[in-house]
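Structure ticket #2291
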Amino acid sequence: MSNRIPPDEFEDINEAVGEEWESKTTPYERIRRVIAHTYTPASADTVAEDARTSPKTARRHLNTLAEEGFVITATGNHGGTVYRRSPESLVVEQAADILEHVSTDELVTRVAEMRDQLNDYRAEYGVDSPEELTIEQANQTLSEPTSEQSEINAETIRDWQTTRRNLAFANAALSIA
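Resolution: structure written out below.
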């Protein structure tokens, strides 16, 4: 292995890429991109730093995105406003992605299959949701710790939750179609 020092032009690739991103996009585009990939509430200062713009500019664009329904605001721990992607905008994005890849007829078929699967879970376990099933199982364990009971598989709970979530996305896609 060589002990060569990398050329200066490669010393900070992140800075070079950041500068290129900044030169090819507007502050609004960068802020939208940053907040689209922010999964916890963030201050305008944090978004500004990641989007390579000023906090004042970030705040202005974040407020515009809030008016458009792309982000929601809340009061942070220290009293300042924090921003995060709105759940509704995520659903619309997911629905549009589904429609791009699945025909409406196929989607109708999949919705019916998912509804059947959810009905099967309800019939098998006698509750309406995976959360109710978990609570029921915990209560049964607490009230009868020595009795033998069937242990509900964690994978079953996850599958039930995933099917329910996917059905919501599919229904949103159908309502857009």
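Closing remark: The longest strand covers residues 71-75.
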